[in-house]
Design goal:
Layout: H1 3-37, E1 42-46, E2 51-53, E3 57-59, H2 63-75, E4 78-81, H3 92-105, E5 122-128, H4 136-144, E6 153-160, H5 168-175, E7 180-181, E8 185-188, H6 196-205
Parallel strand pairs: 1-4, 1-5, 5-6, 6-7, 6-8
Antiparallel strand pairs: 2-3
Length: about 210
């Protein structure tokens, strides 16, 4: 084989290797995108309490709202915030006494606006833990939408100062028996501003 033939063969081999390498990288990229896309359209439904909070003091943005924003940033999920002004301006101790009374009596406070859940495949549901479960205003939402999450993936999460998930996952399962309710996620309220990585790690475990 002469020099010209050797050079031609080497160039052909290099071209073949470069092409196969590029195809491999493209496949990996598409696979990562598909794993998120197959989850479908996502929504974060949450209640978050600003103002006087245990451990973090008087805050302008509630702990759960911060986690909801992290979820949206990572997953692209839309948001529906359950808003009531019933607790506005309340100091922490009167607030927890009112929350205790509401839970004991099974009260269902009203909230502002509403949302059609039909277009969503994945619904994150989050809130603080008040007396062992979500605030009662969230149960108002659950009752209104009891038949709207059939066959959908529902992912509970909580912010807390020692209660973890409490009974929130069980209560979501009871509220939406026909939904696919996953294992929940909890994070300390005083962590949310400094430990975004914990939320990101959880979402990575879900495939995002």
């Amino acid at each position: 084989m002469n020099i010209k033939s050797i050079i031609t063969a080497v160039l052909a081999l290099l071209a073949s290797t470069a092409c196969s390498g590029g195809a491999k990288n493209q496949t990996v990229s598409n696979s990562g995108t598909d794993s998120v896309m197959t989850k479908g359209k996502a929504l974060v439904v949450f209640f978050s309490h600003a103002g006087d909070n245990y451990s973090v003091g008087n805050i302008e943005v509630g702990n759960t709202k911060i986690v909801a924003d992290y979820i949206t940033e990572v997953t692209g999920a839309e948001q529906f915030e359950i808003v009531t002004h019933k607790y506005d301006g309340m100091a922490y101790n009167p607030l927890i006494e009112l929350a205790k009374k509401e839970a004991k009596n099974g009260e269902l406070p009203e909230y502002e606006g509403d949302i059609d859940l039909a277009g969503y495949d994945v619904v994150f549901i989050g809130g603080p833990v008040w007396w062992g479960t979500y605030p009662q205003v969230m149960f108002t939402f659950f009752k209104k939408h009891a038949n709207d999450l059939k066959g959908k993936t529902v992912i509970p999460f909580t912010t807390h100062e020692g209660s973890g998930l409490a009974s929130c996952v069980e209560d979501v399962k009871e509220a939406f028996p026909d939904a696919n309710v996953t294992k929940g996620f909890s994070i300390y309220g005083h962590e949310v501003r400094t430990n975004k990585a914990k939320v990101e790690k959880w979402l990575q475990g879900l495939g995002y």
